[in-house]
Amino acid sequence: MWLRRAHVPPPFLGQPYEGLVDIAIEKDRIIAVQPALPPAPMHPEDWDLEGGIVLPCFVDCHTHLDKAYTWERAPNPDGTFTGALTALAADRIHWTAADLYQRMEFALERSYRHGTRALRTHLDVPPGQLAISVGVFQELQQAWGDRMTLQAVSLISLDLFLDEYGEKVADTFAQLGGVLGGVAYANPDLPAHLDRVLTLAKDRHLALDFHVDETNDPHSQCLKAVAEAVIRHQFSYPVTCGHCCSLALQPEEVVKQTIDLVKAAGISIISLPTCNLYLQDRQAKRTPRWRGITLIHELDQAGIPVAIGHDNCRDAFYPLGDHDLLQIFATATLIGHLDNPYHHWLPCITTTPARIMGIEPGLIAPGSAADMILFSSRTYGELLSRPQSDRQVIRKGRLI
Ligand SMILES: [Zn+2]
Fold it and tell me: What pTM was computed for the model?
């Protein structure tokens, strides 16, 4: 099958082409990409895209499927971060295997239909929840294995790693082939907590993924602490930090020092622009003044991989969303000025998160898997302005 006259953004082509391209698919792979031939009578199996944009399938590397779709029964009355924590802590009594399975599977279904091929979810695993949530994740991983690459990350406060329970969590995520992670809070013991987590991960060859600095407090410098710990331990497995909001509110020289350390430590950053916009700088009866996001441009200019994720979806942390990364990208473009050119930033929801997850990058080039999203939009303005409900998703060479 040939997809004729596709508009593929330059970062996704194996080699640069001017203008539209024709893409040949055989079975589940792309076998050729070449400059588009002029419109002509076609083989009935071929498809003229008429200049429509084609993107590789999305990779959502920071989600919370276990919290998704709980807003109706656990709303956040004041929209604050603390309000969200309180509402979801109380909701956890409902988190049986059946409840989790139904909500998490619905989230996967939405992601898949919107064109996501791989997804990483954090799982809240305080004592009492670990076996239930991990069990459901494993069931879903098996049921969805042919459609979606799934990774799970532990999410607990780092002090919970200090005793035997920390070993149990690390062993469980090692057996799962998962990633070790948790929420880092600024406190004098943070370096010691990180030493413990990095040792647990190193012993089990695990990658790390932390929630850090999701706050407007400029004194919160957990990203810097993680980078220092990675360097101190010569930790050689992939390390990712999500949120990093307070970095945007720190003095220039502090920022520069942290970015240099993050670069030296080889840490990747995930920004969650929509959740941060919703939660940060929120005070009753006061208009927010701050966009809440980390320093996406400065990190990118330093050569640090920066991905964009969905984060929460219709729960107390974020009442909106549909697990559609295009929608997140469109909003992120406004929040973070991710244009000029747009195609520089599209890797944030495709190839960069793929690199963070350690999976196939997802280029539109010969030899790559035929996993693509076909849009009727021919320009970025149209792509990011219209709902794109008519998109067509190709997985393993076939329309889903
Ligand atoms: Zn998160």
Answer: 0.97
